[in-house]
Amino acid sequence: MLRPVVRPTTLNLLEQLTPSLVSRARSFSQPAENLKRNGTPTSSITTRGPRKAKGPLVDPDLREQILAASQSRRFLPSASLTKFNTALAQITEATKAHDLLGALKLWQALEDHLRTLKNSDVRRLPDSHVRDLHKIFVSNGLTALRTRDGKALEKTARDFALQAAKHHSAEAVSVLMVLYIQVENPNAALDFYNECIQVLGPLQPPASLIEESKDANANSSLPKGSDFGLALPEEVVSPDHFDPGRVSAVLAGVAAHAMLDNFKSAFDLYHSAGISASSFRRQHFLQYFSQNPKMEKKVRLYIDRVIVASIVARPISFSKHIANLADLQTIHKLQSFYNHVLDGIFGPEPYLAASPSLLSSSPNLLAALDESCWTALQTGFIKCDRVELAAKVWDDLARAQIKPGVAMWTGLLDSHARRRNSAQAVQTWEMMLGEGIQPDHLSYRALIQALMDDGQMEAGLKMFKEYQQTIGGRELEELGRPVYNTMIHGFLRRNQIEYAAHLLEDMRKHGPKPDLITYNTFFGYYGRQKDFKALSGVLNQMSESNITGDVVTFSTILSALLTVGRKDAPSTVMNLMRKHGIQPNVATYTAIIDAQMRECGEPNLNAALALLVKMEKEDGIKPNEVTYTAILAGLYRGEWISRQKADLVRSKLVQRMRAERVSFSLTTYHILMRAALDSADEQGHIDALDLLREMEDAHVPRVTSTWFILLAGLMRRDKWDAAHEVVGKMINSGHLPSRSLQLMMKDVFANYRAGRVVQQMH
DNA sequence: ATAGGGTTAG
């Protein structure tokens, strides 16, 4: 008996553990690799007997399994074997020559031959060949298959695209669909799409990659269980792998409906696929229409609208999407997304409803924004300091004749609290009441935080009492606790330990029961006070209540120990955390890195930089702007290394922050500006001005310190023209200069004028 | 949602 055998040595031990490799071996992937190198069949499909697994290579159980698998393999007669190997070599050759039609013909012949054999179902073209052939299918298909010879191969092309979709990528499917669309037969594209779904099952990514869909809009007009209902055979897609080619196929389906002017069907097809096309995939797909701008325009319009509608139709993913984009680097994307949404509501062809109740007002409306969507937009804009955009959300709500609910108002209150603007918060509160909105726990919490953090303790206390007497019942544990915790935090910020301790006692006796956050707040306070006796007292209370610490607890205690110079703190606390099974996070590492930098020595700098690498490499924790800022600040704290060395490390770190797209905070900008202006580099002030421009572009607010750092530095360098320009920018930004800034401005004007006079004399 | 890590006081 002749049997194909796979050389055991070519199989990596680890890979032997994965079932997919056994099936690959069955499909002759191994000899295919050799063919690729040599161009001719090799001896790796041999006529030798069954291989013997070598002794210590695998454990006995596993070896049994492998043997069993190899013996259950179907065998090819030697004539077929030769034929098979020759065909492989020919396909490889045609593929290399980018001869798509030739390769498809050979592939068809091979398939026909294999089909005549018994049990042929387990045999097919090796994956590496499928991949290579698929590649030229995608790059040449649109032109090659349009020719007369190509048209003759339509059926073969369809079969291959399907097989490739099953085992590698559905991109070829989308190419064929695009071809049908381009020859103005969109219905053929949709037929093929449906045929693919019959075979492949839903074109969905594995559950782990899609958002929870339980939030599906209650008013959604989506048909339940559309034609994506077929289960997927296990071996077709491994659960952790998702083929981006499937996104292209879905987009091709949308494009086909676009050609039929059927927006509703385009949406249904896209939405029920459960995918989310990235802008990269969208761009990639649209390239198929680069020769036909008119078609491209229409397809782009459909795809954009369908993507927006599909996100709106799932409020939770809507909020997540917004939160992801609410970042200085991506705010422009959030803005453009919002503009798309507005166009969907107010544009000439509305397809979105501004509220669920309006959804039924027109059959063209596919999805509705609910209050959480509007709130998410507001929160996102506020997070990026784009107050004017947050205000626009309110205007747009008014335009849609929707009255903002309590969550919208609370978003405003939160933003005032974050800016410690209690006056604005109180004003907002009164407007809210004026609108007849009933405040809830969250809005009371935000108002109290705004008051307490802005030094309005009396008023904060008053509101807290009002809260307790109105909706803040003691029994409302989960709802009321954040309000109480905010109150405690407010007291402790102002070092009002008696009030805080009193409230804690009250909570222990009457509820809401203190929780981990309550205790962490106290840890923070006692840590700042360097009162370790009191700190261990809280620790005892906590364990009495059976509450265990978390990363925040340990990080807080760690930085307390570090500020009192306990060098052993990092190792001790980290070991303790490990013992408790608590993973350190960015804050933990940042605390240690900061402490190293405060030592002001070259070895400490090296230790800090080593930690920066270690946290990411070993623990997979990405440093953030606080981490980098801690190092940058340390570089310029005192004169413990040369300016040149400090500047070198700074530029490397800045480079890395940019590469990693770490956002720069106000603090980061201040430190970098100061460093640039203090640098020995003649051009340092140019760097500082560039940073100012960057802040403007990113809408990072410029505060008194910003202008002070810039003006003081430029004046020190005698750069009066630049200083004059900065003063102009300050005035234009609407900043009201403090007394000391006004004095500096005077100085700048005088020297600038003097400089002009001198220039004119020459 | 509320707690922890980075600037400096002009």
TrEMBL record:
User: What spans are recorded as compositionally biased (Polar residues)?
Assistant: 27-47
- Keywords assigned by UniProt, alphabetized: Repeat
Q: Does the keyword Transit peptide apply?
A: no
- One Pfam family name is PPR_3
Superkingdom of origin: Eukaryota
Spans annotated as Disordered: 27-56
Q: Where are the PPR repeats?
A: 370-404, 405-439, 480-514, 550-584, 703-737
What the entry lists under InterPro entries is as follows: PPR_rpt, TPR-like_helical_dom_sf
Record's PROSITE patterns?
Answer: PPR (PS51375)
**Job description of the protein:** Regulates mitochondrial small subunit maturation by controlling 15S rRNA 5'-end processing. Localizes to the 5' precursor of the 15S rRNA in a position that is subsequently occupied by mS47 in the mature yeast mtSSU. Uses structure and sequence-specific RNA recognition, binding to a single-stranded region of the precursor and specifically recognizing bases -6 to -1. The exchange of Ccm1 for mS47 is coupled to the irreversible removal of precursor rRNA that is accompanied by conformational changes of the mitoribosomal proteins uS5m and mS26.
Similarity field: Belongs to the CCM1 family.
Spell out the protein name for this chain: Pentatricopeptide repeat-containing protein
Which species is this UniProt entry from?
Crepidotus variabilis
